[in-house]
Amino acid sequence: MAKTQLNVRVDESTAAAARRRAHQRGLSVNRYIEELVKQDAGEAGRAFVDAAADFMKQYESVFAEEFGAPAPAAPDGPSGDTGAAGSERLSRRAKPAAQGKR
User: Which residues contact 97 (CB under 8 A, 6 or more apart)?
Assistant: First the structure.
């Protein structure tokens, strides 16, 4: 990973708090700030997914009217097995590839 120098000016109390918190975690100030940025990006991603799910739920009837109701999802077993129907679908997909190898 390439390192980039970033010169940012913050007030002294903010800089002191960052140094103190980085020291408490056993990190350099740069590493502490890097982790804060990654955490913030992760939270923004989760917020986006939550908002998208909320949007889809609110407009579910509109989508169903326009595109039809979605097919029910097959329940997965504990090992990710999709059951007999899922195995049948997989085997139907695999047959043409197997036949082409003859």
Answer: none
DSSP per-residue codes, the chain: -----------HHHHHHHHHHHHHHT--HHHHHHHHHHHHHHHHHHHHHHHHHHHHHHTHHHHHHHH-PPPPPPPP-TTS--HHHHHHHHHHHHHHHHHHT-
pTM (global) more than 0.85 = no
With a CB cutoff of 8 Å and minimum separation 6, the contacts of 52 are none
Q: Locate 1 and state its tokens.
A: 């990973």
- Locate 79 and state its tokens: 């090992």
Condensed to tens digits (0 to 9), the pLDDT of residues 55-70 reads 989 988 888 888 887 6
